[in-house]
UniProtKB/TrEMBL annotation:
Organism: Pedobacter chitinilyticus
The protein, known as: Efflux RND transporter periplasmic adaptor subunit
Gene3D superfamilies given in the database record: 2.40.30.170, 2.40.420.20, 2.40.50.100, Helix hairpin bin
Principal subcellular localization: other
A Gene Ontology term for the protein's cellular component: efflux pump complex
NCBIfam families in the record: RND_mfp
Length: 448
């Protein structure tokens, strides 16, 4: 009796399993849900991203050439100044006395020149008289009217007067040279005295003031002096960014750029590359620096005024809404190509690995696909059989979303575009899939 019950139960279970199998409840092949897109022509802009600080394109650092105490300070930080405007003064006491001594020496030398010239006039008169006397004595001596001693005295007086005249001429010349030297000393002393008064060399805004009234400053005569202030042209701003050595060769002068400033969330500004450093920022650094240190090159991107003229907010007291030192991120458009393109996550390599963080998918792909020596593939979708087929492709430039396909794919062909985890780890040649939309795919994934 018990055996009969066991056989009946076993038969019922077998029958149930058969029914479930026939209805597909159990033993059904697992079908991966994927999104499909057609390969089509797109414009792909490759960018180089870097971050840095906003700074004025023109900035002048002012230091005093003389040391001393600041006795007058006529501006404050943020003031707009014009070229030639008086900014501050340094105590001139010592230099003032030096200038006065130089002027006094100059005047004394002028008097010496005048005295030498008068002496020359006297010497000329004496010479004329001695010359006339000598000539008369020559005639008288020839006529035997005067003695040889008298003739010799007249001749000696003539030669003495001639020598005195030459000496007076040289004294005048020397006095004039001394006057020129004194004039140079006055000029030098005046220039030194003028250095105690500092004027604005350019039009601009006092972007940084480093001193206070009464501070003692160090001059730049023999060493690096105290920086007094900075005057900047804030109507023309730029972003100074550090570009990695792997990307610097893709950047050229004149490249367009998109600039995002942290202080202006959600707004984008336009810029253009104006300067690329020829040496890395590490040149000249200590030799003890690690060999693993990142090597960057400084690149300057000018902010185009037309992109921020209508911006509201920011620095209302300055010519532009940007204050020096604001943080910014720059996307430099290094190359633009129009051609056949597919989503970047659709490309995979033979070096597959597990990934569970979808937020890093694009960055992983961009990094991996930069190496063009590695073979790259896509999965073609066959709508008739709902299966996928692996196809090798040759790719070009890429941006955050799409990558150019140079070879191995035709326009209009359907390729598997997601999800990233399925493309990288689950799909194989001949895998049966179910086409779905992105909304359904990610909605289903989030519910799970």
């Amino acid at each position: 009796m018990k055996l009969k019950h066991i056989l009946i139960g076993a038969g019922a279970i077998i029958a149930l399993l058969i029914v479930l199998k026939l209805t597909g409840v159990i033993g059904k092949e697992q079908i991966e849900k994927v999104t499909v897109e057609k390969a089509g022509e797109k414009t792909v802009i490759e960018t180089v991203t870097a971050s840095g600080k906003i700074q004025p394109e023109t900035e002048v650092k002012l230091s005093s050439e003389v040391s001393g105490e600041v006795t007058e300070l006529l501006v404050k930080e943020g003031d707009v100044v014009k070229k030639g405007q008086l900014l501050c003064k340094v105590r001139p006491d010592i230099l003032q006395s030096g200038y006065e001594r130089a002027v006094a020496s100059y005047n004394s030398q002028k008097a010496s020149v005048a005295a030498s010239q008068q002496q020359l006039v006297q010497s000329q008169a004496n010479f004329v008289n001695a010359e006339a006397t000598y000539k008369r004595n020559v005639e008288l001596y020839n006529k035997k009217v005067i003695s040889a001693a008298e003739f010799d005295n007249a001749k000696a007086a003539y030669l003495t007067a001639k020598s005195t005249l030459a000496s007076s001429k040289e004294n005048v010349t020397g006095a004039k040279f001394g006057l020129e030297q004194s004039a140079a000393n006055v000029k030098e002393a005046g220039a030194n005295l003028a250095r105690t008064t500092i004027y604005a060399p350019v039009d601009g805004v006092v972007s940084k003031l480093s001193i206070e009234l009464g501070d003692r400053i160090l001059g730049t005569s023999q060493m690096a002096g105290t920086e007094i202030m900075r005057i900047s042209n804030l109507s023309s701003m730029e972003v100074n960014v550090d570009v990695n050595e792997n990307d610097i060769n893709r950047v050229t002068l004149g490249d367009s750029a998109t600039v995002e400033v942290d202080a202006f969330a959600g707004k984008k500004f336009r810029g253009v590359v104006t300067e690329i450093a020829s040496s890395s920022t590490n040149v000249g650094a200590a030799t003890t620096a690690s060999v693993d240190q990142v090597t960057n090159f400084s690149v300057k991107v000018r902010l185009l005024a037309e992109s921020y003229n209508t911006v509201k907010g920011g620095a209302k007291d300055l010519p532009s809404p940007f204050r020096p030192g604001l943080s910014a991120t720059v996307d430099i458009e290094s190359e633009t190509v129009k051609g056949l393109a597919v989503p970047i996550q659709a490309i995979f390599t033979d070096n597959k690995n597990d990934s569970g963080n979808s937020s890093e998918d694009t960055e992983k792909q961009k990094s991996k696909l930069n190496d063009k020596q590695i073979k790259q593939y896509v999965y073609l979708f066959d709508a008739k059989t709902s299966t996928v087929k692996k196809a090798e492709v040759n790719t070009g430039i890429q941006n955050d979303q799409f990558i150019i396909v140079k070879k191995g794919l035709k326009a209009g062909e359907q390729i598997v575009s997601g999800p990233y985890s399925a493309i990288q780890n689950k799909l194989k040649d001949g895998t049966k899939v179910e086409q779905t939309s992105k909304d359904k795919l990610f909605t289903t994934g989030s519910k799970k």
